[in-house]
Design goal:
Largest sheet of chain A: 6 strands, antiparallel
Number of strands of chain A: 9
Largest sheet of chain B: 6 strands, mixed
Largest interface: A-B, 12 and 18 residues
Number of helices of chain A: 4
Radius of gyration of chain A: 13 Å
Oligomer: heterodimer
Shape of chain A: globular
Strand order of the largest sheet of chain A: 1-2-3-9-8-5
Strand content of chain B: 25-35%
Helix content of chain A: 10-25%
Structural class of chain A: alpha+beta
Strand content of chain A: 25-35%
Order of helices and strands of chain A: EEEHEEEEEHHEH
Distance between the termini of chain B: 46 Å
Strand order of the largest sheet of chain B: 10-11-12-9-3-13
Chain lengths: 124, 365
């Protein structure tokens, strides 16, 4: 099975993606991660305004099979949380790079973020 | 240790299953999506490979006596062609495993079906007690050579009926008969563990491919869907909701007192159960509906007004009901329906209410 890994995103070892095309960075979980987790049934998000430190657990994604902590790859203040996924956690399965995004954060992308080739290599 | 594979393993692999070890068997967790598989069983029909469950044949002049003295339900009431849900107990009343006993429709034997991974232990137990009580029985562990599928859902009986010689739709729940399905001689029983109607089909493992082909069009379901289905139906999972080591409980605590007949004579564990019945149980398994989105998992603590009240054994987000549900043992004083409790889930406390099971009835529209 091949998982979708868009070229224009950056990635983390722990299967988050980072979209740094806007004024703030948007974070979600990869197609590979959602596929591994299976049916997502519950999501917990950081709150808007909350200050996060990179590498710390800040959200929870729970599938029928397992619980996973989500780590912010970026330090900074949360500028938005995607409330839609609280009511429709299955958006993480159906549209992980779109409607299923998790939160946005105002901060710098770290140097150790993976580019698409590095991430593809990791999940192969 | 290498996991055992059922006779349907290759078929599962071709169908794209994700596998896991379950009771020493490499079994499919899911094929597509647990949610989709779950829905197929609630709304139409789904097929599970349950060949990993044990198959123990008990035959001979004293077969009935052996089972009668080892299980708390009255197996003497069974007629050929009938099945009974029961359990094996330790002498202190603790449940070792829950089982279904099939009284073969055409042979003198009984077929005892324990959970995956328990067949050798329970086979040993049957043999040990047969010797101890000098009973004339012949025992056979057919687990590895017998295949078993569960076809479950509102359309399941009709779907199997299409392939069977005998009229399956005439079978009462917990009845079984011998019939050919396709070209294969099978035992077909109106049993299952999903809360839906349906059948379980026992067949020689070597005929698995022939049986499998007959149901090519039926949604394949894995252990993930089986778990969410059985939990919605308030059915216990061996090793999780009760376990002689980690979750030792007697049948009254596990709320399967219907499987205990204290008037049926002596059986292993009887005096302990009599004592419990006289004194009352300290704790009981209950259904819990969580009042906000969160998933309770095994070993999460249950509280009442901040004081410990019990522990969760199983929990999920109910795919059918769209609400989080759980099973757990609570002190008897908190076991009544409607009792307000809370569950510690990671770093927060989530309100929960004791509800009747099956959840499908108590938490439905």
């Amino acid at each position: 099975m091949t998982n979708e890994t868009p070229d224009d995103l950056q990635y983390t070892d722990s299967h988050e993606w980072i979209d740094d095309h806007g004024d703030v960075r948007r974070i979600g979980i990869t197609d590979f991660a959602q596929d591994e987790l299976g049916d997502v049934v519950f999501v917990e998000l950081p709150e808007e305004g909350e200050s996060l430190e990179s590498g710390t657990a800040c959200a929870v994604v729970e599938s029928i099979k397992a619980v996973s902590d989500i780590y912010t790859p970026i330090s900074g203040a949360v500028t938005a949380a995607n409330d839609n996924v609280l009511d429709q956690p299955e958006l993480l399965n159906t549209d992980p790079y779109g409607e299923g995004w998790l939160f946005e954060i105002d901060g710098e992308v770290p140097d150790d973020a993976l580019d698409v080739d590095e991430y593809r290599e990791q999940i192969e | 240790m290498i996991s055992k594979r059922t006779s349907l393993y290759e078929s599962h692999r071709r169908a794209g299953a994700d596998f896991t070890d379950f009771g020493g068997w490499e079994m499919p967790v899911s094929f597509d999506s647990i949610r989709e598989e779950h829905r197929a069983v609630r709304e139409g029909v789904g097929l599970f490979d349950v060949s990993h469950m044990g198959q123990l044949a008990v035959d001979g002049p004293d077969a009935e006596t052996l089972l009668h003295r080892l299980i708390p339900s009255d197996v003497r009431g069974l007629e050929p062609g009938e099945a009974q849900y029961s359990c094996f107990l330790r002498s202190d009343g603790v449940m070792l495993d829950d089982i279904v006993v099939y009284d073969h429709p055409n042979e003198s034997e009984y077929v005892v079906v324990p959970n995956a991974g328990h067949d050798e232990e329970l086979y040993g137990r049957l043999r040990e007690y047969a010797v101890r009580w000098s009973l004339d029985v012949s025992l056979e562990n057919r687990t590895t050579e017998t295949g078993m599928i569960a076809v479950q859902g509102p359309d399941a009986v009709e779907r199997v009926d299409d392939e069977a010689d005998e009229q399956i739709d005439k079978l009462e729940p917990f009845a079984l008969e011998e019939t050919s399905v396709g070209e294969v001689e099978c035992l077909v029983a109106r049993t299952g563990y999903t809360g839906e109607g349906g059948v379980e089909i026992l067949f020689p493992g070597e005929d698995a491919t022939a049986i499998d082909r007959l149901f090519d069009d039926v949604q394949r379901c894995g252990l993930g869907a089986r778990d969410t289905l059985r939990l919605e139906a308030g059915l216990l999972l061996s090793g999780q909701d009760f376990d002689p080591e980690d979750e030792p409980h007697d049948p009254f605590e596990a709320d399967i007192g219907f499987a205990v007949d204290l008037d049926s004579g002596d059986f292993v564990g009887r005096s302990a159960l009599e004592q419990t019945q006289k004194e009352g149980i300290d704790e009981r398994i209950v259904g819990l509906r969580l009042e906000e989105r969160a998933i309770a998992r095994h070993e999460h603590q249950i509280s009442s007004g901040g004081a410990p009240a019990g522990q969760v054994t199983s929990g999920t987000m109910s795919p059918t009901l769209g609400v989080p549900i759980a099973l757990g043992y609570v002190d008897a004083e908190f076991a009544s329906s409607g009792t307000d409790l809370s569950i510690s889930i990671r770093d927060r406390s989530v309100d929960a209410t004791v509800v009747d099971t099956p959840f499908l009835e108590s938490c439905g529209e």
